[in-house]
Amino acid sequence: MHVILLSGGSGKRLWPLSNDARSKQFLKLFRNDAGEHESMVQRVWGQLSQAGLGHQAYIATGRAQVEVIQSQLGEEPAIIVEPERRDTFPAIALSAACLYAVHGVPLDAVVAVLPVDPFVGDHFFAKVMELEEALLSSNADIGLLGVSPAYPSAKYGYIVPIADTPVDAIGGKNNDPSLPYRLVSHFEEKPDEERALQLMEQQALWNCGVFAFRLGYMVQELEARGLPTDYDRLLEQYQQLRKISFDYEVVEKAERVIVLPYAGDWKDLGTWNTLTEEMSSSLIGHAIKCDESLNTHVVNELDLPVIVLGVSNAVIAVSPDGILVADKAASPRIKEVMQHREYRPMYEERRWGRYRVLDYTKHPECGEVLTKRIRISAGRNLSYQYHTQRREVWTVIAGQGEMVLDGSLHTIAAGDVVIVPPLMKHSIRATAELEIIEVQTGTELTEEDIVRLALDWETIVREHVADGLNEMKAMAAVEVPR
């Protein structure tokens, strides 16, 4: 079985910790067996690998999330990059074309599609693996995993099975109790609680967003819509694909759909209210809470202390992006409040480490001024790049490394100050974790003002370094002696 993990999300529901560059699946709020904090994507990838599915798993995501995935999971996962967000049908279509045309996956192979952020027990992935046999033995077009409802929820969609009387088109009785799967009648999206209770009485299941199909079936679906099955051609036409979910575009139109019931642990941690129910501690970061503050959770990413006195049933989240103080019952409204507000992300994880924005101002004399605290992990490097609209000043405050400036290689350590003017090509690699204060000044302090020439350090040194290890050139940079 091949697995596609869908990693999307705009980062609004768990603001201020989440943003467009760091969606909920990347927040390190849980503890693993070693007692270390881990994110949802790290937890799911570990469970997937433990089930033996990691070597045939792919992550479909947008460009903005590629580096944080590499930061948290390393280089192991194969990543399929969507040019832009266009809902789940375009993402799955592009992934299917990639498996078919790029990776050479056979048409009769079964592909399972999962969200990247479910909070589930390990048994969940064993049940996902059972979908392959259920799909093949039933000769169905689509196989689904359905969660046995714990209560009549109005937040989830429901998969409604066919009654077990007539003979179906596949063969045998509908929903034969001897079979592990059940035949699907229809779907109902987020009914009210009264209707949800009626659906539970009909043995309906929560739709947890897990699909399975033969790759050949999806290739036929693309051809039927006049879409190319060649990955490169589909990538070129991606902006023209209709923004629609896979459920509406494919599943609800399929002739034969089965569902495999799952009765284990499953939870969608999509709001602060549900997320705090599974957090390893009620206090994360620099925070103190008095005993009278019951059922209150604090997550603080800043160095400033947060003190909570006499506040119960609340969530308090503090990050470089902002501060949230909310009653837990009201916390789901944050997405509505933040819907039309766009801010520069103040914290990001990258493949080489992470950075936090310390200050951002505008001055009449020099334009924009952006100050960052950058940490580069040992053995990692920034790309070899240059800017046209900004000047950078690096102050190394900890660690050691080496850098390339316009083709010359230099050592760098705590106490050094480096000036990088516009158009100077530059990169830096940490031999021991590097911490740098970077001050940018210019007219356009955005990601668009980055021209990347190379990513891999060996490539940078081999193809762009001319003179080997040199002393710092006065015209290239300024060094303050240690």
From TrEMBL:
InterPro entries given for it? Man6P_isomerase-2_C, Mannose-6P_isomerase_type2, NTP_transferase_dom, Nucleotide-diphossugar_trans, RmlC-like_jellyroll, RmlC_Cupin_sf
Work out whether the entry's keyword set contains NAD.
no
Superkingdom per UniProt = Bacteria
Q: Which keywords appear in this protein's UniProt record, sorted alphabetically?
A: Nucleotidyltransferase, Transferase
SUPFAM superfamilies linked to this entry: Nucleotide-diphospho-sugar transferases (SSF53448), RmlC-like cupins (SSF51182)
Q: Which GO terms describe its molecular function?
A: mannose-1-phosphate guanylyltransferase (GTP) activity
What are the coiled-coil residue ranges? none
Identify the EC number(s).
2.7.7.13
Enzyme class (EC, first level): transferase
Nucleotidyl transferase domain segment(s): 3-279
Q: Which GO terms describe its biological process?
A: GDP-mannose biosynthetic process; polysaccharide metabolic process
The family database entries (PANTHER family) matched by this protein are listed as: MANNOSE-1-PHOSPHATE GUANYLYLTRANSFERASE
- Tell me the protein's name: Mannose-1-phosphate guanylyltransferase
Species of the source: Paenibacillus curdlanolyticus YK9
